[in-house]
Design a protein that fits this description.
By secondary structure, the protein is an alpha/beta fold. It contains 11 helices and 14 strands.
Length: 355
């Protein structure tokens, strides 16, 4: 009996991707220093030809700030830094923020035991972080100027048995779909929390951004009767007011606890649910002060400090439940895309963020 040599030999893969970890330590891919990017697949893996990365906001902000020259971002320096990280780690994981982003591409190969339901030729967005996705770039990022979060590129990535991916919708441009799916966990968890707690007054900090604006819509759809948006400057204020997605829009520095508390107080009572979507550190104390006793805070920023949140609440004797948005809620991709389609006002807000 002859073996079919037209197909690569499959090995039994761990659905968590543990077999891709090159560290001597017993860690999972997200906690690893380096991953194996070999395109030869395990039996439950999927190979994706990469077309575009989307760096998460906190990571890109850090990279851009480190590349400032005479008050302007040196895009070439950002590009070199991203290339260096991917080459050194076999994944895109900013060593400062610990975060990465996601990608879109076309399915090139599917292992026979893959549970993801994907087929060769499917165009997909990965709904798992680049911090745990084996990634190889083969074009030197030559099509990217380093001046925005979205990175056109070429190469390959590997998905595991416990990864998540969504087929790209036919009715939206790739760049827009990627932006929506990049933050789809935020509106999904916001909707769940608002519904479960029967919350009527919801505060969204960073409401002019992608996750923030979708969370406003999700809160309203889940039953909130009053949604308040906090934004950092006049430009975001005017854009959000024009969208009509929030009942009140307030300019406040989310990193100043008393300023945020006082800004929310001027709109009425403290929030029953506060959603933090700001990509800068230091927003934890203000969110705690802006939330009423017995309320809930959802942190959706990769810049969130667990210790600052936990110790801050303790130090303020604040009886609040704090949730870390992990980016996954069943049905989150479909919910975010549906919200975008039902709220055409979101298009202008997203256009401000896509470059």
């Amino acid at each position: 009996m002859t073996q079919d040599v037209s197909l690569p030999t499959r090995f039994a893969a761990d659905p968590t991707g543990r077999h891709r970890v090159l560290d001597p330590r017993p860690v999972l891919p997200q906690g690893a220093d380096r991953l194996d990017t070999d395109p030869a697949l395990g039996d439950d893996e999927v190979l994706v030809r990469v077309e575009r990365l989307n760096l998460d906001a906190a990571s890109y902000r850090n990279l851009a700030e480190e590349a400032m020259v005479d008050g302007r971002v040196d895009g070439a320096q950002v590009r070199r830094r991203v290339l260096d990280i991917i080459a050194a780690r076999g994944k895109m994981q900013n060593p400062v923020t610990g975060s990465g982003g996601m990608l879109i591409g076309t399915v090139a190969e599917v292992g026979p035991r893959s549970p993801l339901g994907l087929r060769v030729g499917d165009r997909v967005a990965t709904l798992v972080s680049l911090t745990l996705t084996p990634l190889h770039i083969d074009d030197g990022l030559t099509r990217w100027d380093g001046l925005g979060e979205q990175v056109p590129t070429g190469g390959h990535a590997v998905l595991f048995g416990r990864s998540i991916a969504a087929r790209l919708p036919d009715d939206l441009p790739d760049e827009l779909a990627l932006s929506i799916l990049d933050v789809c966990g935020a509106p999904a968890l916001t909707a769940r929390v608002v519904r479960e707690r029967s919350a009527t007054r919801v505060l969204v900090v960073g409401a002019g951004g992608k996750s923030g604006s979708l969370s406003l819509c999700a809160a309203r759809a889940a039953g909130a009767t009053e949604v308040i948006g906090i934004v950092p400057d006049q430009g975001e204020h005017d854009a959000l007011v024009a969208s009509g997605l929030a009942d009140r829009v307030v300019i406040a520095d989310a990193t100043s606890p008393l300023a945020l508390r006082d800004a929310v107080a001027r709109t009425g009572d403290a929030a029953e649910v506060t959603v933090v979507c700001v990509d800068v550190p230091g927003c934890e104390p203000g969110a705690i002060l802006a939330t009423r006793p017995g309320g809930t805070i959802i942190f959706f920023s990769m810049a969130t400090s667990f210790s600052a949140a936990a110790l801050g609440a303790e130090g303020l004797a604040a009886d609040v439940t704090m949730l870390i948005g992990n980016g996954y809620v069943p049905g989150h991709a479909e919910l975010a895309l549906d919200l975008f389609r039902r709220h055409p006002e979101l298009a202008a807000l997203f256009a401000r963020r896509i470059r």
